[in-house]
Design brief:
- The protein is an all-alpha fold.
- It has one domain (7-204).
- Helices cover 69% and strands 0% of the residues.
- Helix 4 runs parallel beside helix 8 (189-201).
- The chain is elongated.
- It comes from Amphilophus citrinellus.
Length: 222
């Protein structure tokens, strides 16, 4: 799992879901969107915990099987994960466009965080696409994960589009109010379909394993 999945894919996904959670509450989104956002964050934390566990297990096996392997402590790995996660959340949020002025200050903040969430969703797929391309394989990655994500994003986006606007709210105002969440759900479908194509292309391929030169080099040169 630790070699098949890109850590940046998981971290960007968690960052996007976290912004989605905060923005959905600040922008007063639909109850379904709020409940779904809470579930997504919990699921991301479970996946990151599993990734960290298998990463530590893989490092410990490598250090035990090779004399020249460098031992990596769990504290160092967790600190690295924390620093990488923290760096994703550092950044300035752009000011709201002019057409958002009729919104309240709370809604504008939620809209900006939701927009950041949609950007993180879109960029989260790129590291996994690159990892699959570099390995020339999708072994170790569950397609059901992406199949369910595609199904969930499709139904999520359609549920927002098919809901009637509130009384006194125009359709254009309703779409603008929910635009970041529509982009974050329906906009990622294209990248998820690219990953689906990779599953078809690499379904019978063996993953490329890159060995560390320091771990395979003989202790005494010939």
């Amino acid at each position: 799992m630790d070699r098949a999945l890109s850590i940046w894919f998981l971290l960007l996904w968690l960052a996007g879901d976290s912004c989605n959670l905060i923005g959905s509450f600040l922008a007063d989104q639909l109850p379904l969107q709020k409940y779904t956002a809470i579930y997504y964050v919990i699921a991301d934390l479970v996946m990151l915990t599993m990734y960290t566990y298998y990463k530590m297990k893989s490092r410990s096996l490598l250090s035990a099987s090779s004399v020249s392997a460098v031992t990596v402590s769990p504290d160092h790995l967790l600190n690295y994960w924390f620093e990488e996660s923290r760096s994703l959340f550092c950044g300035n949020v752009a000011s709201a466009p002019l057409f958002l002025q009729p919104f309240t200050t709370k809604e504008i903040i939620g809209f900006c965080i939701g927009s950041l969430s949609s950007v993180l969703y879109l960029f989260s797929r790129l590291p996994q696409i690159y990892t699959n391309f570099k390995r020339k394989s999708t072994a170790g990655v569950s397609y059901f994960l992406f199949a369910l994500v595609i199904l969930g994003n499709t139904t999520y986006g359609l549920s927002v589009l098919l809901k009637n606007p509130d009384l006194g709210q125009g359709e254009s105002s309703y779409l603008i109010h929910h635009l970041p969440w529509l982009i974050g759900s329906l906009g990622t479908l294209t990248l998820d379909l690219i990953i689906s194509v990779q599953f078809m292309i690499y379904r019978n391929a063996q993953p490329r394993v890159e060995l560390n030169h320091d771990e395979t080099a003989p202790l005494i040169g010939s």
